[in-house]
Every structure is written in structure tokens, then in C-alpha cells.
Design brief:
3 strands, about 90 residues, single chain, about 10% strand, globular, about 40% helix, mainly alpha
Length: about 90
């Protein structure tokens, strides 16, 4: 959460607080994949997101990253923007 694009989300202490709230959630799982993927060649660091998603067994990746969004789906994991994710649950 320390990337520059998150500077719009409060102070560093507020961002740290948000992260700590996620870590306190019952369904939060920390993963440390022991494998590496090379799916996104234009931005190799995005592959870490895919690795963690696979390791964590998630259903969705919610991201604003253009490389991830371009995939739309990866090994059964649906990749959507935050706005698209909200629409999925908006009744």
C-alpha cells in the first residue's frame, strides 16, 4: 500500500491502518507462493498478484491495473475493476 498511486488514500498511517484492518478479518489469508509465473511480460511485477491469487485460491482479483484487467480471467480467477466488482453485488 505504499505505492505512489495510493497517496490519494489518506496518510501513510491511515493506509497502514486500512491494511491492519484487512489482516484482522476472519477470511484474510497471507500467502507466500513458492512458484513464479511469467504471464505478464510487459510488467513482470504483476505476476506476483497472479501467484498470490492462485496460492490463496481466490475467485476474483479486483484491480485497476491495465495488464491484469486485460487478462479478464486467469486459471478460473475472474479479474475485474473495483467498479465492476461492486456491480456484481449491487442489488
Amino acid at each position: 500500500m505504499l505505492r505512489p498511486k495510493f497517496n490519494k488514500v489518506g496518510t501513510i498511517n491511515e493506509r497502514q491502518g486500512i491494511l491492519e484492518q484487512f489482516l484482522d478479518l476472519e477470511n484474510t489469508v497471507l500467502v507466500s507462493p513458492d512458484f513464479q509465473l511469467n504471464v505478464i511480460e510487459n510488467d513482470p511485477e504483476d505476476n506476483r498478484v497472479l501467484e498470490c491469487a492462485l496460492e490463496g485460491g481466490v475467485q476474483y482479483i479486483v484491480s485497476g491495473d491495465e495488464h491484469l484487467l486485460a487478462l479478464e480471467e486467469f486459471q478460473g480467477i475472474i479479474i475485474v475493476s473495483p467498479a465492476e466488482f461492486v456491480k456484481l453485488f449491487d442489488t
